[in-house]
Specification:
By secondary structure, the protein is α/β, with parallel strands linked by helices. Helices cover about 25% and strands about 30% of the residues. It folds into two domains: about 1-80 and about 220-424, Zn peptidases (Aminopeptidase, 3-Layer(aba) Sandwich); about 85-200, Aminopeptidase i, Domain 2 (Roll). The chain has helices at about 1-15, 15-30, 180-190, 220-235, 265-275, 280-285, 335-345, 365-370, 400-410, and strands spanning about 35, 50-55, 60-65, 70-80, 85-90, 95-105, 115-125, 130-135, 170-175, 190-200, 205-210, 215, 240-250, 290-295, 295, 320, 350-355, 375-380, 385, 390-395, 415, 420-424. Strand 21 (about 415) and strand 22 (about 420-424) form a beta hairpin. The longest helix is centred in the middle third of the chain and has 16 residues, at about 220-235.
C-alpha cells in the first residue's frame, strides 16, 4: 500500500500539468539532480545527474554514465489531460455568476457535471525583474456545472449532444460576489500579468473494490505513466547507456508546442548532450531505444463487444504493449520483443492491445517523437476504463508493474550489430 499511497498523493497534488511537472522536478532535486538552464553553457561530467524544465509544464532528466554513453534508453509520457481552460475576463454576469471556459482536448463532458470544482494552474506575476511564473491552486469547492433536470430534458437518457458554449459553463456564485480575481491575486502573491488556469475535480483519488483492486482518480491518462516512468528512472541501476526521462505537455491537443513531443525538447537535448560530451550523435542514436508510455483501453465490463476479441487487456493484468497496423502506435515486432524481454527479466506480466478492426483508435506522443528522434520504439501503457473522463479507473496493482519494468529498462543498454539486437 506504500506504493499506491505515493501514487495517490501524486495524483491528488497534480491539479494541473504544471503541478504534475513540479512534483517530478521535486523528486529529481531530492535525488541530487541539478537543474540546467537551456540559455546557459553546460558542463556535463561523468556520473552527473541533470534535468531541464521548459515553460513549467515539461521536463527531461538524464544521467551521464561513467564513460561515454553507448546509446540512450529513453522513456516519455505526458502530464496534460483533457479538461476546461478558464478564460481571461471569465465571469459571465446575469441572474447567476458563471465562468467562461474552453475545452482542452477530447474530454467526456458529461463526466464533469454535478461535481464540485476548483481552479488551479500557472500565473505570471509582475516583479521588478520582469514576470515570474508561479503555481496557484484555489483549493476550495468553488464551482459546479449543474445538469438540466430530466423533467425539462426527457430525452437526455437517449443521448445528448453537449454545447460547450452553453451546457458546460460552471456556476460560481451569485451577483455581487465577484471576488474571483481577488482570490487569484492572493494565491499568486502579486499582480497577475498572464494566466493559464484550468478547472479540476475536487474528488480525491480512491482505491476501492471488494479487495481494493481498483484505483480511480482524475488524470490517470497519463499521470500513471508519468509516475511509473519517473519512479523507474530514479530507482534504476547504472549501465553503459544514458537513461533519459521525458515528461511532455500538449499531447492531448496534438503535441505541437515548444513543450510538446513535436517540439525540440528531446531532440535538442540529445544533440546538446552529444556536443558537450564529444560523442557522435548518429552513433548514440544507432544504439538507442524509446518507450512511449500512454495508457491503454481496458476490456469494458459492460461492453466487451468494443474490444478486439483476442487482444483486450484487463485491469491488473500487467503492462500493455500497444500495436497498430498504420503505426498510430510505434510498436513493431522488434520493439515488442525487446520490451517483453525487459518485462520477463523484471517478472512483470505483459498484455497486448490492438484496436478492434472496425473502431479507429487514437495516436500517441511516440509517433510524433520519432519524427525528431528516429530510434526503435515501443508504445506501452496501463489498462484503464473511462479514458478522458473527469474521473478515470484503473487497476491498483498495475502502476507498480510498470515502475518495476521501467527500473529494469533503464538499467539496460542496447547494442545493435547487423540484424542482431542485444539488451545487456
Amino acid at each position: 500500500m506504500e506504493t499506491i499511497g505515493h501514487l495517490c498523493d501524486f495524483l491528488e497534488k497534480s491539479r494541473t500539468h504544471y503541478h504534475a511537472a513540479a512534483q517530478v522536478a521535486g523528486w529529481l532535486q531530492a535525488a541530487g539532480y541539478v537543474r540546467l538552464e537551456e540559455g546557459r553553457s553546460w558542463d556535463l561530467v561523468p556520473g552527473g545527474r541533470y534535468y531541464i524544465q521548459r515553460h513549467a509544464s515539461a521536463l527531461a532528466a538524464f544521467r551521464i554514465p561513467a564513460s561515454a554513453p553507448t546509446g540512450a534508453m529513453i522513456a516519455a509520457a505526458h502530464c496534460d489531460r483533457p479538461g476546461f481552460l478558464v478564460k481571461e475576463n471569465g465571469l459571465l454576469e446575469g441572474k447567476y455568476l458563471r465562468l467562461a471556459t474552453e475545452r482542452y482536448g477530447g474530454l467526456l463532458m458529461y463526466s464533469w457535471l454535478d461535481r464540485p470544482l476548483s481552479i488551479a494552474g500557472r500565473v505570471l506575476v509582475k516583479t521588478r525583474q520582469g514576470v515570474e511564473s508561479r503555481l496557484v491552486d484555489l483549493d476550495q469547492d468553488l464551482a459546479l456545472i449543474p445538469s438540466v433536470a430530466i423533467h425539462m430534458d426527457r430525452t437526455v437518457n437517449d443521448g445528448k449532444k453537449f454545447d460547450p458554449a452553453v451546457d458546460t459553463l460552471p456556476l460560481i456564485g451569485l451577483p455581487g460576489g465577484e471576488k474571483l480575481e481577488a482570490l487569484l491575486q492572493e494565491a499568486a502573491g502579486g499582480e497577475i500579468a498572464g494566466r493559464d488556469l484550468y478547472l479540476y475535480l475536487r474528488e480525491k483519488p480512491r482505491v476501492w473494490g471488494l479487495n481494493g483492486e481498483f484505483l480511480s482518480a482524475q488524470g490517470l491518462d497519463d499521470l500513471e505513466c508519468v509516475w511509473a516512468c519517473a519512479q523507474g528512472f530514479l530507482n534504476a541501476g547504472d549501465s553503459a547507456a544514458m537513461p533519459v526521462l521525458c515528461v511532455f505537455d500538449s499531447e492531448e491537443v496534438g503535441s505541437c508546442s515548444s513543450q510538446g513531443a513535436d517540439g525540440t525538447l528531446l531532440s535538442g537535448l540529445l544533440s546538446r548532450i552529444c556536443r558537450c560530451l564529444g560523442v557522435e550523435e548518429e552513433v548514440l542514436l544507432s544504439n538507442s531505444f524509446m518507450v512511449s508510455a500512454d495508457n491503454a483501453h481496458a476490456l469494458h465490463p459492460n461492453h466487451p463487444e468494443l474490444a478486439d476479441p483476442t487482444n483486450a487487456p484487463v485491469l491488473n493484468g500487467g503492462v500493455v504493449i500497444k500495436t497498430n497496423a498504420n503505426l498510430s502506435y510505434t510498436t513493431t515486432g522488434l520493439s515488442a520483443a525487446l520490451f517483453r524481454q525487459v518485462c520477463e527479466e523484471a517478472q512483470v506480466p505483459v498484455q497486448t492491445y490492438y484496436n478492434r478492426a472496425n473502431i479507429p483508435g487514437g495516436s500517441t506522443l511516440g509517433r510524433i517523437s520519432l519524427g525528431h528522434v528516429s530510434v526503435p520504439s515501443v508504445d506501452i501503457g496501463l489498462a484503464q476504463l473511462a479514458m478522458h473522463a473527469g474521473y478515470e479507473t484503473a487497476g491498483a496493482k498495475d502502476p507498480q508493474h510498470l515502475a518495476q519494468a521501467m527500473a529494469a529498462y533503464y538499467a539496460k543498454s542496447l547494442h545493435i550489430t547487423g540484424d542482431r539486437y542485444e539488451l545487456v
